[in-house]
Design goal:
Blueprint lengths: L2 H14 L3 H22 L8 H21 L5 H4 L1 H18 L1 E3 L2 E7 L2 E3 L1 H20 L6 H19 L4 H17 L4 H21 L3 H11 L10 H12 L11 H4 L11 H34 L3 H25 L17 H23 L3
Antiparallel strand pairs: 1-2, 2-3
Length: about 375
């Protein structure tokens, strides 16, 4: 049999092993995002739908990564985890020196019409680094040495991201690490120590690190009526948008909060409010069902594998998506401070879109390897 035929047959077999339910969940989320971004673009006088076009380009690039990683051996990531991690550190240092300041944070490389946010790559590098680390140490009893080793992995990128400053992304990085160590078997005495240190750090940060606008965001979180025309404005408008959607919404392009510009950052931070207002409670339920389907497929492979690296890699992917979902929806409902965290697969943003789709590509590689091995 010709070599080309053998390779072609192998790739066809791999494609048959794609988890199409996972792909369906991602496609539904992408559809929600593009529809909502298109709806907001309708309100712009230019009529060029530039953000929609950019998002579609990012999705196209993302699908390329999904296909590439799906047909690759994800276990090779373990061999390159250190290289990936240090590339991430160099990118974070580079963006502090040569990056562009956008919306108060120096976190972007800008090349003409194209921008790249290194912290999105760092999330993946951190997931792989932690999966490799705990994959090696999971057989051992959790001790202070293992805890400090994992803390060393996360603290460097967190400090560099805080220097931008991007508190939302720093929180996500810390959240990924914290939930991973909990799932790795963190003893209660270490958990108590970490919570105590975290409280002390917060008090010190409030006194010496947080800027006035960051303090205002936290005060607004505790008291939503604080500064209703300033830091509390977007939160109030988002809550109004969510509450006005009713069962079936006002229809795409007919949301007053987004179309009349009452709701700022409607394509990024507050896109959930746009969906709730224009598609209503039914649309929100469908959105959550898509996330539930995605999580259920990822957990399915966590239960089917016995390789520690794979387990922690999948858990890292689940945690990263879940944390951003939780924080973004919480922001829109006034349950969390506004931190600039987008809704995974939905919010406008090329870097975030590409790297979240890359995570799905890694998950699909795990799916294919699991199915082809008969596990």
């Amino acid at each position: 049999m010709p070599r080309f035929t053998i390779y072609f047959k192998r790739y066809v077999d791999q494609l048959r092993s794609i988890d199409w339910l996972m792909m369906l969940a991602m496609f539904v989320l992408l559809l929600f995002g593009v529809s909502s971004i298109y709806s907001v673009d309708l309100s712009f006088a230019s009529g060029d739908f530039l953000n929609t076009k950019k998002q579609l380009i990012a999705i196209g690039i993302g699908f390329g990564f999904v296909l590439w990683f799906s047909l690759s051996n994800y276990k090779l990531l373990r061999n390159y985890s250190t290289v990936m991690y240090f590339i991430g550190i160099l990118l974070l240092i580079g963006v502090l020196l040569f990056g562009e300041n956008i919306r108060g944070a120096q976190g972007w490389f800008v090349f003409g019409p194209v921008s790249f946010q290194p912290v999105e790559y760092v999330k993946i590098a951190l997931i792989v680094a932690l999966a490799t680390y705990f994959g090696k140490h999971s057989a051992r009893r959790f001790n202070a040495k293992i805890l400090l080793g994992s803390l060393f992995i996360v603290i460097i990128p967190v400090v560099l991201v805080l220097m931008q400053p991007d508190f939302g992304s720093a929180f996500i990085l810390l959240g990924i690490w914290f939930l991973v160590i909990l799932l790795a078997g963190l003893p209660f005495r270490y958990l108590f120590t970490l919570v105590t240190l975290g409280a002390v750090f917060f008090v010190l940060a409030w006194s010496f690190v947080f800027a006035d606008y960051q303090k205002a965001r936290l005060i607004t979180f505790v008291n939503p009526t604080y500064d209703p025309l300033g830091q509390g404005y977007n939160v109030q408008q988002a809550i109004i948008a969510v509450g006005s959607g009713g069962w079936f919404g006002r229809g795409l392009g007919f949301g007053s909060q987004s179309q009349l510009k009452y709701l700022q950052e409607s394509q990024t931070d507050f896109i959930f409010a746009v969906i709730a207002e224009e598609l209503g409670f039914v649309g929100v339920i469908l959105l959550f069902l898509a996330f539930i389907l995605l999580f259920s497929r990822l957990f399915h492979y966590v239960k089917k594998t016995y390789d520690n690296f794979t387990i922690f890699l999948l858990l890292g992917i689940i945690i990263a998506i879940f944390l951003q979902l939780l924080v973004n929806v919480g922001m829109n409902l006034g349950l969390f401070p506004v931190t600039g965290i987008g809704l995974p697969f939905v919010s406008y943003g090329g870097s975030s879109m590409v790297f979240f789709m890359l995570l799905i590509g890694i998950a699909q590689s795990i799916s294919m390897n699991t199915r082809l091995s008969g596990s």
